[in-house]
Specification:
about 200 residues, alpha+beta, DNA Binding (I), subunit A, 2 domains, 8 helices, 9 strands, about 25% helix
């Protein structure tokens, strides 16, 4: 249980990390973080430990009692987003292109897509964010070793390196706990983080 995962938010309620329960409890006890419950209420260690534990709650034993397992904690001081380079990987290209063929705009399962060099390697094309896109097998065969213009097809959008942060990385993974959903789904993230206008 102590190695199970806890979502860590910065002061702006944006996900910045996933840590283990042991570390989350230490941050909570030291006052570095507070627990966020399903109603977006904040609890310090003592107030969280004072909550009663229902039968369906995950719990961890304390001396003489049980405490609910916190699944989301909010850092009290940290308000930045960590900068992490986006790895150029097959998975990340699929994520950037949203499993969509960049020539015919149809969505496929990953097993029905492959990666295509927009400018073929044989014609000097590089293997980079700006030259590799998802394509379905049919479009890839039609394009062959030619440029899209030579093959008479168009890209639906110009490929580029995505400016992702931790948040987008975790959107692609299964959401491990119900308590994480409001912070890892795009609709809820937008609701809480889009600038409000007059």
């Amino acid at each position: 249980m102590l190695s199970s995962q806890v979502l860590v938010l910065n002061r702006s309620f944006v996900p910045v990390h996933v840590t283990n329960l042991r570390h989350a409890l230490c941050m909570l006890y030291r006052g570095i973080a507070k627990v966020v419950d399903g109603h977006y209420e904040l609890f310090d260690f003592d107030s969280w430990a004072a909550l009663s534990v229902a039968e369906h709650d995950e719990q961890i034993g304390l001396v003489g009692k049980a405490m609910r397992v916190p699944r989301v904690v909010l850092l009290q001081i940290y308000d930045r987003l960590p900068k992490r380079p986006v790895r150029f990987s097959r998975l990340n290209v699929y994520l950037r292109d949203q499993n969509t063929c960049q020539y015919c705009a149809r969505i496929f399962s990953r097993s029905d897509l492959n990666l295509d060099h927009v400018i073929p390697v044989s014609k000097g094309g590089k293997t980079s964010w700006e030259n590799v896109v998802c394509s379905c097998i049919e479009c890839n065969l039609r394009k062959g070793g030619r440029s899209p213009e030579q093959a008479g097809i168009k890209l639906i959008r110009r490929p580029s390196k995505p400016p992702w942060t931790f948040f987008f990385n975790h959107m692609t993974k299964p959401i491990y706990y119900e308590a994480w959903k409001p912070f890892l789904t795009m609709v809820d993230f937008s609701y809480w983080n889009v600038e409000l206008k007059d």
